[in-house]
Amino acid sequence: xxxxxxxxxxxxxxxxxxxxxxxxxxxxxxxxxxxxxxxxxxxxxxxxxxxxxxxxxxxxxxxxxxxxxxxxxxxxxxxxxxxxxxxxxxxxxxxxxxxxxxxxxxxxxxxxx
Amino acid sequence: xxxxxxxxxxxxxxxxxxxxxxxxxxxxxxxxxxxxxxxxxxxxxxxxxxxxxxxxxxxxxxxxxxxxxxxxxxxxxxxxxxxxxxxxxxxxxxxxxxxxxxxxxxxxxxxx
Lengths: 113, 112
Description:
The complex is a heterodimer. Chain A is an all-beta fold. Chain A has no helices and 11 strands. Chain A has strands at residues 5-7, 10-13, 19-24, 31-38, 42-50, 53-57, 64-68, 74-78, 87-94, 103-104, 108-112. In chain A, strand 9 and strand 10 (103-104) form a beta hairpin. The N and C termini of chain A lie far apart (37 Å). Chain B is mainly beta. In chain B, the strands form 2 sheets. In chain B, strands 2, 4, 5, 9, 10 and 11 form a 6-stranded mixed β-sheet that branches. A 5-stranded antiparallel β-sheet of chain B has the order 1-3-8-7-6, with no helix packed on it. Chain B is globular, with a radius of gyration of 14 Å. Chains A and B meet through strand 5, strand 6 and strand 10 of A and strand 5, strand 9 and strand 10 of B.
């Protein structure tokens, strides 16, 4: 069974630009969650999508948004990038929403200059 | 708001020794998870602990959960170099919506 895939793996952007990251979950998994990992703040939950609906949300500004498609693939968008948005962005998939074991993708390393 | 504290944050130990990583959380929760992260890699699920008194073991790692004390432990027995990694605990948190709250991670270095 294929694992969670994320594209691109690495990205360099300039302040003020926007970026879109993609995540394909494990086949049969309908929940996709997104996390930000930084050395200073650690791992932080961004949001969770299930059946094309945002079910849960962390404490991030509105510049961070996402969506999920009918095939459960998910995208995360960050607008008006700031230097502090430089991070490893991880997505994880699971069968159900709202908790349970998650399977993580390799992450997208975003650098904002 | 739920806070999750891990200690120690850094641990250097010799192969063959035993040690324990602690994970405390501040409010009631039903589920606790342990994950492993190798340098430059993603997160790998180790254990899901669902109830008070739950104990799970995989190889040299054993995790337990005491929901009354709001404490989970990850015990390493006879450590080997391959267990060097960063270990995270995470806790389900529900208020107006669900979030998964993470500990800061314990960086474990096992020296031959």
